[in-house]
Predict the structure.
Amino acid sequence: MDTFTVLPLKIIVSGGNTLFAVDRWESCGLNGLLCDAMMRGAVLCGGSCGAMCWFDSGHSDSNDPSSFQHAMLHEASTNGDATSHGVNSATEADAADESSSAPSDGATSAAWDYIRVPCLGFLPGLCCPHFDKVQSNGVLRAVDVEGMALRHPGERVVCIDHHAALVCEGGGVYSVFRLPAAQGSVRSDGSFAADRSGEPGVWIKDVVHGAGDRDGQSRVSAPLHVIGALVGHRH
């Protein structure tokens, strides 16, 4: 396991059940080795679970039965690992997605709730991936994370649209990327599009009032700058 984290220049974490993953890493000591890899300059990256696991905590679908170990192993053995292939478009990204899809018209929503999960703490804040998506429980993550932010007002929330990526280079330097022609939550005027009629982007959210304030609201700051696909721009 030491060799696994000492040699690579890049460590990629796939999507999956974040609660299970972080617990296993901590129980076997992998969390410390991942931290060592980060400190020596390795790139730590991933999507879904692999995006939120580096933060203090995450807005997670780990309660979704389709993310449980047996369900995911069955899916992989039945359909193969679609996420192992390159993704070049929004359509391909949806086909390879490891988050559950919204219920089809007339279908019953699955009975599970999003939860806050503790993560590795390499980056500050609570991370919400798939921010602009509705999953099988029929709930838009952008709506649910608002309530979670109010229950944990001391945490800044980093919200990443389904087709966006946030690159943190240290020292306050970051880049935002998006897939071309993809749906997202950032309108051209900078406002939020719940119907995904905008472009993919990243939002930073803070709580205005403290915990226990019944009038507390979450405040949305301006979204981070959205950059064209695979064309980075530093800030």
Q: What stands out?
A: The helical segments are 2-6, 18-28, 30-39, 49-52, 69-79, 90-95, 141-151.
